[in-house]
Design goal:
188 residues, two-stranded antiparallel ribbon, alpha+beta, 23% strand, 5 helices, globular, 6-stranded mixed beta sheet
């Protein structure tokens, strides 16, 4: 999941600035939504291309609209790759790329970024250099609505349920599919 969050973080920082992008990134802080921009939530998922069009939802709160004006589900698709492919990357490569971007644009935010990366359970002692990835499609973006096929406290009696995990078929969200991220940026 970190690959997707970092991919969106870089795009967001390019749009709204390094400091604001980092402040919006809530995934490492263990908040329910990966990104919060005022009253807009963005839940980011990363799935492998060979898998069916499903993503894992980790709790009954992840796709809950709560007090948000809008909630988006952003899905990145990756495939395993090799170092031979010039477009492939490792998690370490991705972190280095963002570090360099921050150094060039707002060096004062570097410690905040590194802190969040380590809070995300990134371990620089692990050898991520052997795991090469390739972004398949740019992304899929969905607006989560009350009628979306989700399990949330609003549509399920969750009083006696906890640690709810489920897979959602992206086909079930086709009617709320959006073209591009400008829809999110226009809300800011």
């Amino acid at each position: 999941g970190l690959i997707g969050e970092l991919t969106f973080l870089k795009l967001l920082m390019e749009k709204i600035g390094v400091k604001d992008g980092l402040e919006a990134w809530k995934g490492p802080d263990k908040l329910v939504k990966d990104f919060l921009l005022s009253s807009i939530g963005i839940e980011v998922k990363t799935k492998q291309g060979g898998l069916k069009g499903q993503v894992q939802i980790s709790s009954e709160f992840q796709l809950s609209i709560d007090n948000l004006t809008k909630l988006f589900l952003l899905v990145f698709t990756v495939d395993k790759s090799t170092e031979i492919n010039p477009n492939s990357f490792t998690l370490t490569d991705q972190i280095e790329e963002i570090k360099n971007y921050i150094i060039q644009n707002d060096i004062n935010s570097l410690d905040a970024f590194l802190g969040k990366v380590y809070m995300s359970k990134y371990d620089d002692k692990h050898d991520y250099k052997s795991d090469f990835w390739l972004l398949v499609d740019p992304y899929q973006l969905f607006l989560i609505k009350e009628s979306s096929p989700t399990i949330t406290p609003q549509n399920t009696n969750c009083n006696f349920l906890n640690e709810v995990k489920y897979k959602i078929s992206l086909d079930g969200l086709k009617d709320s599919s959006l073209e591009n991220l400008d829809i999110i940026y226009d809300e800011l």
